[in-house]
Amino acid sequence: MNPTLQHHLTRLANPVDAANLQRFFKTAHGEYGAGDQFRGIRVPALRQLVKQYPNLSLPEVETLLHSPWHEDRLLALLMLVRQYPKADAPKQADIFALYLRNLPRINNWDLVDTSAEHIIGAHLLAQDRALLTQLVASTNLWERRIAVMATFHFIKRGDFADTLTLAARLLTDREDLIHKAVGWMLREIGKRDLSAEETFLQTHYRQMPRTMLRYAIEKLPEERRQQYLSGTV
Questions:
Q1: Which domains are assigned to the chain?
Q2: Do 141 and 107 contact (CB within 8 A), yes or no?
Q3: pLDDT tens-digit readout, 207-226
Q4: What does pTM read for this prediction?
């Protein structure tokens, strides 16, 4: 790792914050973040480091992404997110490839949500999106969440088809973190086109896990929310 950057990360570490973050991100045995390690660095401080190292080379970023420290991996992803839209096409392809070969390092919801739409979603916007089908079929929770969250890039451009297709495939997923992600993306569709969201809901709401449904209908008028919750739509 870049020694100056290593020094900054070490200096910013806070043991009290580290203990709190390890509880928040469920790192105990059997939890979704089991075994992860935290330095105790808050996100605003990491974003400042991104500004201080705007052109860190991709090999150096990849080294960061292989760190056992959660914040180092988050910093690496924030750097990729900053570099991707400013890069030429060959470098964008390199960033995309780096991301894919390091999927096992993108192993908590904040790492996914910070990066998937800006790298996977952005890269697939004008390309074949078969990768999303592969990811959503994965046995790995985080790969499925990456597939869902990548579509946020499409949603922001009025393109809902992939999100709705993935949402239908994930109705029987057993993971609460997938229910939340799908419900969130359905809610984002509704902000832009309520009829598109309601068409999906009216077809599927009785099958939807409760958390997914609650997230999806959060911004609907209270009367309409209660109709969905009570099954009287």
A1: 1-127 (1.25.10.90), 128-233 (1.25.10.90)
A2: no
A3: 999 999 999 999 999 999 99
A4: 0.96
